[in-house]
Design goal:
It is built from seven helices and eight strands; from the N terminus they run E-E-E-H-E-H-E-H-E-H-H-E-H-E-H. Strands 1-2-4-3-5-6-7-8 form an eight-stranded mixed beta sheet, sandwiched between helices. Helix 1 runs parallel beside helix 7 and helix 2 packs across helix 3. The longest helix has 21 residues. The chain is globular, with a radius of gyration of 18 Å. It starts with a strand and ends in a 9-residue tail after the last helix.
């Protein structure tokens, strides 16, 4: 049986998803991030698919989302990149909690997410070399370029000093995987994107993947392209994501947790 446990870690609301019989054991830890305007409850399907394969899964609410909501999420559109940055800074708090409590088997920490959560995943892989693997679902490893695209659609941009905009974009380069692709460092990383995605474009994600092929640091990267799904993760994609982590970390499931 899979348990869903609501808890607070260092003031951060999360759901922990884990097979009941393994709850007190040291397990590989996977943190899965939801998308823009979403919440931790909306990615329970992904959490379940991971947990039934023997992983401990943590689903956090991002800043301004879910239990951390402060007015309509859409009112924080201009703070989108602050939300990603907050998640990047908060990950060590979550990981340290499990290191000190149940333990993390073989120090296997993985990250994944969809849309904004996948952008976060790529940022995390850029910043933390102790993350062992990642799966990005319809995200972007190119936040600086993506931010420029979003800025062009932002009302009132002409009223924002250009120097301020460039300063903010320069900060994004610190978490931009496309600027530091060598930081993949041979880790298993999988990308999934649909060609019909009109919210987070497919082309930059695939172009980044193509650009790193043949590099030793990218020897364990892979990419799945689908068509006709748009900006939506269907069940088959959630299963593929979980199977990737099973391939990367192995599984301890004996067939009775499903």
């Amino acid at each position: 049986m899979i348990e869903i446990i609501a808890k607070q870690i260092e003031g951060l609301p999360v759901l922990e998803v884990v097979a009941r019989k393994y709850r007190t054991q040291s397990l590989p830890l996977i943190v899965f991030y939801h998308g823009w305007t979403g919440c931790k409850e909306r990615v329970l399907t992904e959490g379940y698919e991971l947990a039934k394969r023997g992983f401990r899964v943590v689903l956090p609410d991002a800043k301004f989302h879910g239990q951390r909501q402060s007015g309509p999420v859409t009112g924080h559109r201009q703070e989108f990149w602050q939300i990603v940055d907050s998640s990047v800074k908060e990950l060590p708090l979550l990981v340290d909690h499990y290191r000190q409590t149940s333990g993390i088997k073989d120090d296997l920490v993985g990250v994944s997410g969809l849309s904004m959560g996948a952008i976060t995943t790529c940022a995390l892989l850029t910043v933390y070399d102790w993350i062992k693997a990642g799966v990005s679902l319809m995200g972007s490893p190119c936040p600086t370029a993506f931010a420029r695209q979003l800025l062009e659609e932002l009302p009132g941009l002409a009223d924002i000093p250009a120097s301020f905009v460039e300063q903010q974009l320069a900060q994004l380069e610190l978490i931009d995987l496309s600027k530091h692709p060598e930081r993949i460092a041979g880790r298993p990383v999988h990308f999934w994107h649909d060609t019909a995605d009109q919210m987070v474009p497919y082309a930059p994600d695939k172009a980044f993947f193509d650009s790193i092929q043949g590099k030793d640091y990218a020897r364990n990267t892979s990419f799945t392209t689908t068509t006709g799904q748009g900006h939506k993760v269907n069940y088959a994609t959630a299963v593929e994501m979980a199977e990737k982590f099973e391939e990367y970390f192995g599984g301890i499931d004996d067939g009775t947790t499903k």
